[in-house]
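Minutes, project check-in
Item: structure for the 235-residue chain
Input as provided by the requester:
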Amino acid sequence: MDASTLAVQCQGVMKTYDGGGQRVVALRGIDLDIHRGELMMLVGPSGCGKTTLISVVAGILDQDEGSCEVFGHDLLHMKDKDKLRFRAANIGFVFQAYNLLPSLTAAENVSIPLILNGVKRQEAKRRAVEVLKKVGLGDRTESLPSQFSGGQQQRVAIARALVHGPKLIVCDEPTSALDHETGHRVMDLLKEVALDRDRALVIVTHDARIFGFADRIAQMDDGQVVKVVRSSEEL
C-alpha cells in the first residue's frame, strides 16, 4: 500500500493500564491501516480495546510500544503544544459521554473547535448553526445541553466534531442513543464526509444497524485486531 493513501498506520501498538496494582493489557500489538476516503468501523465485545485504540489514534492516549502515524505525523513524539495544535486542526472526536459544556448553548458548544483554530466568534457561530441544521437541530441552536435528550446531545457532539472540517473523525458509539431514522441520517452525513479522499472516519460501534455504511470493518477481541473485512456478512 502506498503510504500516501494512508490516513492512519498503526504498527505493533501496545497499551497497558495499572488496574489497582494489576497490569491490564488493553492492546496487544495492533497492526491496522486506515485509508484516506474510508469509513472504518471497529467492532467487538465490550472491553476488547476498541475505545483504547481510537484514543491512541486520536492522540488522547499514548501507546507504550509501537507506532501510530496520523497523516504521516507521529503524535507520540510530538511536543505537547504541537500535539494539541495538530489535534485541534486535524481531528474531530465524538465521545460516548458527549462531553458538552453545560453552561454553553448548542451553537456555542459546536463553535469551540473553530474558536480554538482562530475563527472569530461570530463566524464560528454561523458555521456551527449550519452544521446543527445538518444534524436536524437547526431550531435548537440556543438550547442548553440540559434541555436536550441523550440522542439530541449526541447529535450536538457529532456537529462539534464535524464543524472544523477535520481530516480524521473518530467516533465512539455515535448512534447508540439515536433511533433508527435519526441514526441513519447521522450516518448519511458521516458517510458524505468520508467520501472526501483526504479524510477518514473511524467508528467504534455495537450497532449492527449501521454496519452497511462501513467501507471496511475491523473485528477486535482481547486487545487484538483478529479480522478486517469489507462486509458484516464476513464477520
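Outcome recorded: The CA atoms of residues 167 and 199 lie 4 Å apart.
No further action items on this chain.
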